[in-house]
Amino acid sequence: VKEHGRNSVRQFIPEMGVTAISRLNMEGALRRGLDRGEFVLHYQAKIDLRSHKIIGAEALVRWQHPQIGLIHPIEFIPLAEETGLILPLGEWVLAEACRQQIAWQKLGLPALKLAINMSSRQFRQEDLSERVAAIFSATGAQPAHFILELTESMVMQDVESTLVTLRALKNLGVALSLDDFGTGYSSLSYLRKFPIDELKIDKSFINDIHENPDDAAIASAIVAMALSLGLQVVAEGVETKEQVELLLGMQCHQVQGYYFGRPMDANSFANRVQSSLAG
Ligand code: C2E
Ligand code: CA
Ligand code: CA
Ligand code: CA
């Protein structure tokens, strides 16, 4: 399996035995993990398709469990979401990304825009924008260096209150992205009404883009729509050169995927950026 190797991500459930760890234990472990600082962020490059330059990164959370090793978000985000632990975890993610952004600037890296995933529970907090603002001011990070990723299902749930939240976030100076685009049910008319900056085409449309004409047509239509609405468009899950060439032909702005780099720890990512500048 591709995922295995040095950065092998071990699966929580199979390693422990499905019945060995109860939900309750898992919840307790998550809570302790937060208190003990067991979470880390990995960064995956976002690449400008014309210049092939790294222009930003998506922050992706992992759980560095002392016994189990590195645990993938798919193993703990759903429970964190259910239990509400996603709220403190989500705030930690943003604060950590802010600290990292500042550390990289001090190192002399070019200004990178960091993308942060928001969970639906976070997004529905009435005081979300105040909380986000508080994290920016506590860490000293600039909102303009961040892009918050939301999903279609999140924003389409209650469009009136969504609009209020999106405007409040935009007023802080952060950019907004619609993640996994194409997999949910966004009413296209809201794309115009919502103050969003970017669409991220879901990787399920990119996977077979070179051999499935329907997927290629969908990707191409999303790119064209984003361009005509003046939005940035990013393709995720790009693994091959053929995909890169097709997306370039469609005028897609940015790509993200294993072809250009896997998510990696902060130091490896900084080295990667520095060597790409030198090279
Ligand atoms: P996502 O936001 O759609 O993130 C993209 C996922 O695709 C990441 O998985 C990334 O490692 C993976 N990926 C990147 N390039 C490729 C590629 O070329 N091929 C393939 N097959 N996959 C690729 P990851 O890191 O396991 O994250 C999974 C999901 O967990 C994310 O999906 C996101 O929904 C959630 N997540 C991650 N970090 C956070 C976080 O800090 N907060 C919240 N709320 N959710 C998070
Ligand atoms: Ca994302
Ligand atoms: Ca995505
Ligand atoms: Ca996803």
3D structure, described in words:
- The chain has 279 residues and is an alpha/beta fold.
- The protein contains 13 helices and 10 strands.
- It has an 8-stranded mixed β-barrel, surrounded by 4 helices.
- Strand 6, helix 9 and strand 7 form a beta-alpha-beta unit.
- The longest helix has 21 residues.
- It starts with 11 loop residues before the first helix and ends with a helix.
- 36% of the residues are buried.
- The N terminus is likely disordered.
- It binds ligand C2E and calcium ion (CA) (3 copies).
- The site of ligand C2E has 21 residues, from strand 2, helix 4 and strand 6.
- Ligand C2E binds next to strand 2, helix 4 and strand 6.
- One of its GO terms (molecular function) is cyclic-guanylate-specific phosphodiesterase activity.
- This is EAL domain-containing protein.
- It comes from Undibacterium parvum.
Task: List the SSEs and their pairings.
Layout: H1 12-16, H2 23-35, E1 39-48, E2 54-65, E3 69-71, H3 77-83, H4 86-106, E4 113-117, H5 120-123, H6 128-139, E5 146-151, H7 152-156, H8 159-172, E6 175-181, H9 188-193, E7 198-201, H10 203-206, H11 213-228, E8 232-236, H12 241-249, E9 254-256, E10 264-265, H13 266-278
Parallel strand pairs: 2-4, 4-5, 5-6, 6-7, 7-8, 8-9
Antiparallel strand pairs: 1-2, 1-9, 1-10, 2-3
This protein binds ligand C2E and calcium ion (CA) (3 copies).
Organism: Undibacterium parvum
GO biological process, one term: cellular response to nitric oxide
Protein name: EAL domain-containing protein
